[in-house]
Amino acid sequence: MTSRNRDRPLNAAEITRAALAVSGIGAWAWESKTGEATLSGPWGEIFGVPDDAIPRRWEEFLAWAEPEHRDAIREAERGLAAGTRIDVTCRMDPPRGNVRWIRLRGDRVPSDGGIRMVGVVEDVTARTEEQLRLRKRDEEYRVLTECALDMIVRTDGERRIHYISRSSEQLLGRSPEEILGAGPEGIHRDDRAAADASYAEILSERGHSTANFRLRHKDGHWVWMESLGHAIRDPDSGELKEVLFLMRDASRRIEAENRERRARDRLLRAQRDLEKQRAVEQEIRRSEALFRELADSTPIAMWISGADGRPAWGNRALLDFTGHRAGERVRGMSRIHPDDTDRVATEFVRSLENRAPYAAEVRIERYDGEYRNCLVTALPRLDAQGSFAGYVATSVDVTDLRRAQTADAEHRENLAHALRVESLDQMALGLAHELHQPLAAISATLGAALRGLSGGRVEAAKLQEMLAEAQAQAIRAGALLEEMREFIRKGASGRIDGPRSSIDVNDVVQDAASLARHEADRRDIVLDVEASDEPALVHANRVQVQQVLINLIQNGLEAMGSSTGGRLRVEIRRTRRGAVEVRVLDEGRGLSLEERQHMFDVFYTTRADGLGMGLAISRSIAEAHGGTLDGHNRANGGAEFTLTLPTSSDRDASDDTATETSPREE
After folding, report:
1. Which in 171, 218, 303, 496 has the greatest CB count within 10 A?
2. Alpha helices of 153-232 — where are they, by DSSP H?
3. For residues 505 and 535, what is the distance between their CA atoms, to the nearest angstrom?
4. pLDDT digits over 301-345, tens only?
């Protein structure tokens, strides 16, 4: 070949032959008219024979195929005859050549007449033998896993099962088909944390881990499994391919371990309980000794009773109070005042039957024969088994306290009476103003009646009507005087614990306003009363509530001074919380910071002639009735005081109406 020919570019055919030689693939073309094939490429290298030894007809080529693969070659031949695509893999054993696995592929191409097929032949010996080897290994692995008593599980990176051995039927009662695709949700919820930690350890550098967890059997019970997991990774990239688990039934072993642990725990608990019981007994003995020592050192009388309620032991203070000697049985009911015996016996027996606490104030005879007021409190005591064992009781002598409380109540009553008397100078003017109208009406009516009688021109019916009118006015005047007398009277009506009845706060406010209206007129202050739309009934002492309202109204008038055109408003409302509110709103100077902090303190006053008791007593009256009294500045100037009293229930109202009368009705 000349140099010029060596340097010319390769044509397409030459390039194709070179490419086939490099790739180790042989090309072929077959014409149905001649029945012969045209070969190109390294056919001889593929089969290990000279190129001219390669058959050019299908019958000769078919003879090279091993018997079990000749059917595949015949199927390819039929494809050639029909002009359809062929793709067959078989093993060939040429004479004096190499046994090779080949893949024969071909397809029809356009032709003027007959059938023309072109294709390639490829040596796939190495790949096919590797596949056969892997298939054989997989078959051996399958047989091994199917025969194994342990359960073999393979999962992907998402922990989904893509293979499980047949032993799952024996261990879990489920076939592999029922389990495939399942994830970790089948693990008992109490064991999932341990299983998750084991899986994380498998994915770590360690690559393997063991764990114990429970899986649900098909019949519903849980099976303890001992699992050994191992990560399978790509040797080149290190990428996780799957996780292989070997699991076996560990129920008997774990249950035996649990039984042994429970038995060991019971033994340890029994030992601890015994030690604790001994410690408790020692502590009880020490506590009893300490209790008796403390009980004998306290000045409060104490005793312990048995389950029958009879005193079984008393401290030194009890023995000193009753005059008993140490070790002598304390007499109980025999030392109670005869007037209290029945009440105490009934209440104590009821508490004893119900194993409930008992508390009462009882008059008990002291060693010197004097009956003392004692506050007795008895609390149930229990034995070690939690059963009722009797009472631990105390008795506190409150005789001196009750006397002091009585004296304090009398003192407060005197102060309240003094405050009411202090208000008489202003109320007297209001009373005179209120009495002027009924007295003038009586005088005019009686004068007309006398003139009619003297002239003989009055009829009996007309005279009766005039006298009835005069009588009504006289009754009204008498009621006003009785209202004033009741207000200033010193006695039970003014006591915090005085008699109460169902009263309408609207009426009480109107009465208080009428007594203060003259003072308001004198100061040129408008006194408005805005009553509620419905009766505002409360269970209270009328005189005490009236005293509070008069005090608030007078304080409001004093705060407004001699200003002209001022307005003092009293509003009565029923709240949603079941109470009645009376708000007194003035337009005075308001409350200073010091007044807001101390206005309800006893003896605090800003008036030169004041006692400093009005608001203090008013608040105590409100609280004694279960209500409140508060004061604050208004946003637009002035002060606002709010008296809140709980409303009467229908039952209270009906009972009080039937059994008591208000001072006005008396």
Report:
1. 303
2. 168-172, 176-179, 192-203
3. 8
4. 887 888 888 887 888 888 888 777 776 666 667 788 888 888 888
